[in-house]
Amino acid sequence: MREMLITNKEAWQNEDFTKSLSSFQSFCDMLAMGRLPDFFSAHNFQGVQDWSFQPLDAEGQTIQTNIFERSQVLSPDSA
């Protein structure tokens, strides 16, 4: 428990992390999700009934991989 608390405390003291929380856009960028609105718009996702059936092109797969990798870096359990 102590190790988990120390990890969280260190994260909140990290200047890059606190800067990433200064706006919604910077928060999305930290999570590698900053390009999603443009991607969704360009690929007409607003007209898709079930996103799970929408195939991803190379750009979508790259975004998906970046989001997954970023989540692994940010997760204290990934170490």
Mind explaining what this structure looks like?
- By secondary structure, the protein is an all-alpha fold.
- It has one domain.
- The protein has five helices and no strands.
Task: Give the SSE layout.
Blueprint: H1 2-13, H2 15-20, H3 24-30, H4 36-42, H5 58-74
- How many strands, which pairing sense, and closed or not: the largest β-sheet? none
| Arithmetic mean of pLDDT | 85
Write down the domain tally.
Answer: 1
Strand residues, percent? under 5%
Number of strands: 0
Compressed to H and E, one letter per element, the order equals HHHHH
Share in helix: 55-70%
Q: What is the rounded distance between the termini? A: 15 Å
Alpha carbon gyration radius: 16 Å
Spans with pLDDT under 50 lasting ≥5 residues?
none
The computed structural class is mainly alpha
* Alpha plus pi helix count: 5
Shape: elongated
State the main characteristics.
mainly alpha, elongated, 5 helices, single chain
Summed up:
With 79 residues, the protein is mainly α.
